[in-house]
Each structure stands twice: as structure tokens, then as C-alpha cells.
Amino acid sequence: MKLAAFLAVAASAAPHITRVAPLGGQAGVVVEVELHGKDLAGFVSARFDTPALRWIETKEAKAELVRGLVRVDRAAALGPHRMQALTANGVTNTRLFNVFEFEGVNEIEPNDKTAQGIVLKPQVVHGFMKTLGDVDRFAFDAKAGERWLFDLQSIERGGFLECSLTLYDDAGRETAFNEDQDEYLETPRLSVTFPKTARYTLKVDQYRGPQGVSCAGNCGYALHISKLPVVRSIFPLGAKPGSALSVRLSGEA
């Protein structure tokens, strides 16, 4: 019984990261990062699965929040990387820290009713849903005939947010909507060729289904805005090392 009680106390005091904010940073920059969780007051540093990511400065370390700087080398591989916090009480669980191609801009609250203005350019908008009722809106000017891709990523980047994207024109009319890319990817993506030059508003909203799904505090997202092409399928799915073969891609742009 004493051993069981000791193990229970030890488990309850284990340092834990609930979420990372933002979910990553652009290659070649230093990004300020927050680690939210519990029992983090003894924070020493963070380690990554690559030397191209380095925790270089701790600005604040409290039980539920650590704030510091991460240097992302220009040669860092794009995509998700594993990270853990090293503390005086042990090593935390693993979370993802992502390296992005484009520069990042942070969401500014409140933007649930009055949209946050952004410039329409290749970038990653880093956001977070504070509560189940939170909605984020972003307004920008777009030119007729231009194609832009709005790719919201959370689940594939280490977050738990399931949400939708809705685009409105300057008269408030819905012009595009998506909540699931397909049967397997439950984060939304919009490829839009704008019909007219105007100011548009993009709404990021949460799934609020009958099951009461919640992202349990890990509600961050990375909204990619670009003119990149989209690959929807590739065949075959792989090959033997050292072999050569023809590959077929399908998608758009």
C-alpha cells in the first residue's frame, strides 16, 4: 500500500507539456515559444530530435508555463520534430515542434467578432482556441483571378483541434467552406480563385458536435497561406531502396 501511494504521488508530480505555442517556427529564425503544462517549475532546457533546433534562452519558468527562445537553423528539415522538456523532476512527455517554410504571424485576440487584419501573402498564422465558444476571423484584400491556398493544420502538427474554414466576401456572403480535406484528414483546406477584387474575411471555427468533442487545452493551429500546389494522391506509395520507377501525382496547380 505504501509503495502504491508513493508511485501515485510520483506520477502526479511528473512534469507534463499540454501544448506548445506556437506550434513551430520558420527555418532560419529565432522564435519565442511557450510550453504550457504542469510541474514545469524545475525547467532546465528542452531537447529536440535534431541539432538544427536548439533551446537558447529561458525567459520564464513556472509550474504551468515555460517561456523561452528556440533557434531554428536555416538548414532544419521542414515538418514536425519531437521535443521534450528537461526538468529537475525528470523529462516530460513528447510534443511536436514544427519547422515551416514561411514566416509566422500570431493571432491577436479579440478577433471573434471583429476580424484581425492581415496581409495576403505566403505566411503561417499561429492561433489558439481559448474556449469551446471561441471563433477566429481574419480579414484581407484579394485581387480578382488570383489563386490562394488556405491550409489549416492542427492534428498533423501536434494539436487536437478539429475545425472548419469559411470564406466571406465584402458583402458577408459565404463563398467557400471546408471542414475536412477528405475522409482521413480532419483539418480544413480551401483552394480559392477569387472572383473579384475585394476585402474578404476568413473564419476559423470549431467542431461542436453532439459528442461534446474538446481538444482538452491543446487547441493550437497553424494556418498556412500560400500559392503552393496541392498533391492529393501519389502512386505507387513507395519503392524498394535503390530502385527506379515512374510515379504518378494528381492534384491541382
Structure explained in plain terms:
With 253 residues, this protein is mainly beta. It is 4% helix and 50% strand. The protein has one helix and 21 strands. It has one helix at 2-12, and strands at residues 16-21, 24-26, 30-38, 43-48, 53-61, 65-72, 79-87, 90-91, 95-100, 104-106, 116-117, 123-128, 136-142, 147-153, 163-168, 174-178, 189-193, 198-206, 220-226, 230-235, 248-252. The strands form five sheets. Strands 2, 4, 7, 8 and 9 form a five-stranded mixed beta sheet that branches. β15 (163-168) and β16 form a beta hairpin. It is globular, with a radius of gyration of 20 Å.
**Number of DSSP helical runs:** 1
Over all CA atoms, what is the radius of gyration? 20 Å
Kindly, what is the distance between the CA atoms of the first and last residues, rounded to a whole number of angstroms?
Answer: 64 Å
Shape: globular
Largest sheet: 5 strands, mixed
Assembly category: single chain
Q: How much of the sequence is in beta strands? A: over 45%
Kindly state the mean pLDDT as a whole number?
92
Structural class: mainly beta
Helix content: under 10%
Number of strands: 21
Ranges where pLDDT stays below 50 over 5 or more residues in a row are none
Element-by-element helix/strand order: HEEEEEEEEEEEEEEEEEEEEE
